[in-house]
Every structure is written in structure tokens, then in C-alpha cells.
Amino acid sequence: MKRFQVLSILSLSFVLIWVTNGFAQTAPKRVIIDTDPGTDDAMAIILALNSPELKVEALTVVPGNVDGRQGLENALKLVSLAGRCDVPVVGGAQHPLNQKLITAQFWHGKNGLADVELPPAKCKADPRFGPDFIIEMIHKYPHEITLIPVGPLTNIALAVSKDPSIAALVKDIVIMGGSITGGNVNGAAEANIYNDPEAAQIVFNAGWTVTMVGSDVGERTLITRKYLEQLQSSHGPQNDFIAKIAAFYLTRSEKSGYSGAAMYDPLAVGISFDPTLGTLEKMHVDVETKGEFTRGETVANRRGSNENNVLHGDHYEIDGVVELQPNAKVCVASDADRFLQLFVSRVKGK
Ligand SMILES: [Ca+2]
Fold it and tell me: Which of 84, 252, 290, 324 has a CA between 20 and 30 Å from the CA of residue 229?
């Protein structure tokens, strides 16, 4: 081979490597947001739709903050507001796996969207069933889909129970849910997990590594008056809507003694494309499904082992420890100001 040919092949290879790497770094991440919209869900969805790092492949709807019918209507109104009828909106389960639904109009307004009336949806619902749609998309794009469940985990549990192979085929799963330092429903449980503990236990132990963005970190990532004023200083359909629901949510939170409104779901979306917005620690997490005071608690093992007891006559004796593999990356802190600045700038379209 002549020297010229070798050089040409070498330069072509460099160009190809450069293009491939460049593409890999800039190609948006395919995500499916499983949502119970919800004021903070609405903020999370508008953040996702305005973030170039993400390609929102679908919204799947789960009952939680509102029932499934209202949730589907809200999701359709949100994609309509963003002018994104290309994003499929897919209904899913209509109730938790093993208990009655608990809705949260107390926090989110009667319609779940801070009682802000959006125009009727222009976009139409996809007729497929959310959990089946999730399975279909993960097989269509193996190792490319990141699931972002920001409601109860019912749809995800149904999907991974029906087709356990999806656990190895997702790129990532980033949930808003749980807490390792007390709950927001009661002393132990966070609302999304409390609303379907059996589903959550299935999801945490499905074989994938769950990135868990819990309520304890959301409550240290607050949208305050300062950021609300920044949102109110510019105008546009999405910006105005988010400013209105943020104002409602902030006032509601202040009345309950908080200094700002917890950015639960939006933070999970932020961490899905920029994990450095959170501090993540590997742990093994199980969900309590039986406790009298602790049903729905995410129980995190920070040591990676459990003591093992062996029966000796009339008593047990510890004979050593059994190792536990981490099944979660638990977010234990957030870079709150950097996230809030990012959120505000994306919603303002800047
Ligand atoms: Ca939610």
C-alpha cells in the first residue's frame, strides 16, 4: 500500500472516530416519562421538552396525584401547550396493584394543574396500553431508553413483570420517589412509593440499577420567590403557565411552613441528563410493604450486608454477614441553585 493511501485511510478513520464520538456526546437521550400530572410533573415535563439533551419518546400516564382519566387529559394538554403532538401520550393502569388510589388535589389543585385552565388539548391519546408501550419501545431501541417514572411505579412494575427482559435492555431508570430520611406522607413514606408499595418493591428488585431521587432531596431543592420572579419576568405560553403553577405550588407550600416548593419531579428529569446535579451513592433499597407505621418506606442498606442468624437450641446466634448487592444509586444531595437556574432558563427558552 502506498504511503498516500495509508495516510488517507488513517485520516478517514480519525474523521469517522471524531464524528462518531461527537454524535455520541450530542445525541439526545431517548426518555419515556411515566407521570401522574401533577404540578411538579408539569414542571418536569416542560423542562424535559425544552432540554436539548433529551428526546422525549412518550409520556405514559399513571394514576397518583390525580386519577388516570384526569392525568391523561392533563398530559395531553401539556404536550398541546408545548406544540408537541408528535410525543405519544399513552394511558396506563387505572389503579395501584394492591390498594385503593390516593389522589392529591390538596397539593395540586382540583384539576391537578394548580386549577389553571389550559385550552382543550389538540393532541390525541395513543390507544396503546402504557406498560405494553414501554416494553415495545425498549425493544425498539435496546440500551437507549431511559425511563423517568415520576409517579407511583404501577406502570413500570406491570411492564417489567410482563417482560423481565426489559431490565437488561434499558439504558437507565431514574425515579422520583422514596426517601432515606423520613417521608412526606407520614414519618416513613414518600407519596409515589406509598401509593403503590408492591409495585415499587418489584421495580427496585427487577435487576436494573434504579437511580432514586427521593423526596428528602427534592425538599432541599426549592423553587423560591426569587426564582418565581425570574420566571415571571418573561412571557410565552409555556413560561406563563409554569409561572402560574409555580406560584400556586409555592403559596401552598409556604402555607404548610416550607420556604419554597419542592422540585421533586423536575429534579429527577435534571439528573436524568446531568447526574452531576446530584450526589449519588450506591445502596441496596427495599420497599416495606407490611409495616404498621412504615408501609411504603424505602429502606436503604448503606453497609452492603445483613447479619445472618442461625438457630442454636432456644435462640439464634449471629454467624456472620450476608453481602447485599446494591440495586440503587440513591441521590443524597443536590446542587440546588445550579438546578434551579437551569430550570428557569430552560422554561424561559434561553
Ligand atoms: Ca409526579
Answer: 84
Closest CA to 195 of 64, 105, 66, 68: 64
Taking the C-alpha atoms of residue 17 and residue 334, their distance in angstroms, rounded to an integer, is: 35
- Ligand 1 centre to CA of 238 (Å) is 19
CA of 334 to the centre of ligand 1 (A): 19
Task: State the distance from the centre of ligand 1 to the C-alpha of 122, rounded, in angstroms.
Answer: 23
C-alpha cell at 51: 432540554
Single pTM value for the model: 0.92
Q: What is the CA radius of gyration of the chain?
A: 22
| Percent of the chain whose pLDDT exceeds 70 | 93
Nearest to 171 by CA among 98, 273, 242, 241: 273
C-alpha 37 to ligand 1 mean position (Å): 6
61 Cα: distance to centroid of ligand 1 (angstroms) = 10
Q: Has residue 18 got a pLDDT over 80? A: no
Neighbours of ion ligand 1 (CB under 5 A): 36, 38, 41, 150-151, 265
DSSP state letters, 53-87: TEEEEEEEE-SSSS-HHHHHHHHHHHHHHTT-TTS
Cross-strand pairs, 124: none
Range with the poorest average pLDDT among 15-19, 56-60, 184-188, 229-233: 15-19
Report the separation in Å between the CA atom of 35 and the middle of ligand 1, taken as the mean of its atom positions.
6
Longest dimension (CA), the chain: 85
- Cis? peptide before 38, omega within 30° of 0: yes
Distance of CA 300 to the CA centre of its chain: 19
Amino acid of residue 13: S
Distance 318 CA to ligand 1 centre (A): 42
Q: Mean pLDDT over residues 314-341, rounded?
A: 97
Q: pLDDT value at position 23?
A: 46
pLDDT at residue 77, rounded to an integer: 98
